[in-house]
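To make the argument concrete, we let one protein speak, a sequence paired with a row of structure tokens, as a model reads it:
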Amino acid sequence: MKHADERVREQYVEVAPGVRLWTERRGPAGAPALLLVMGAQASAIGWPEPLVDALAEHHHVIRYDHRDTGRSSHSFDEQPYRVTDLAQDVIAVLDGLGVGRAHLVGLSLGGMLTQLVLADHPERVLSATLLGTCALSETPYVRPDGTRVPVAELPGIAPEVLELWARPVEDHGPAAELDRRVEHWRVLGGGQLPFDEAYFRELERRVIEHAGTYAVSTAHGRADDSGMLRTAELARNAVPTLVVSAPAEPVFPPPHPQHLAQVVAGARLVEVPGMGHALPPAVLGPLAEAILGHTAGGRREG
């Protein structure tokens, strides 16, 4: 049985006039805070329960629904925002929950938002862990042989992912939408690990139940993504930073993680075998171990 201070707690935080974000907290209230920052168009439920529970053994874990996802305000059409505003939401969530400093774990777009917070508000970050993302830096990648590769020449998104993303998302009912999402996870998984269809189907059932709709928002893809580069700021980073390398990653394939570890000062790299751009059961144990090992040096009151 969990202690009283370990109960799951839900709360809404206002991040802009008329814009509220749904948040959830679990783990001991006095433990160091750890904030999970999800990817584009993904709600907090995209963070698998076993991973959240494992992290909550040592942290006060916070996850939240981005704007236009889950139970948060769906406001883009009335109040357009920039991607950089989503990074300010990270700070607003911490402020709204009374958290001074937190460990941040960011996946995909969430990894970019975490970099923005690292660059603009380092005083709020105990440590950062970056997954499945690319560097917000113009500094070239340096290969092991010393040759320099311009950022524009790093590998792009895998063709099968691009083909899937190019298809229009049409409403053919909830069953068809669930099938579409499962196929999406199959492609994002990268193919090195066996695909657990039942796991991802259940995950997406919970995502849909949480949101109360199976409709798909396109807000994050339409948001202004200018002004995101932080080349100089990341080069002088002083916050302990971990970059997780996923060898099967189809969205930001290697050497994107290696590049990221080079351009964020002091960052270190760890590989999770078989991992792609998804969080199947097989990677959750190694991923939790990597995150907890990284945060262990900074487990103090946030």
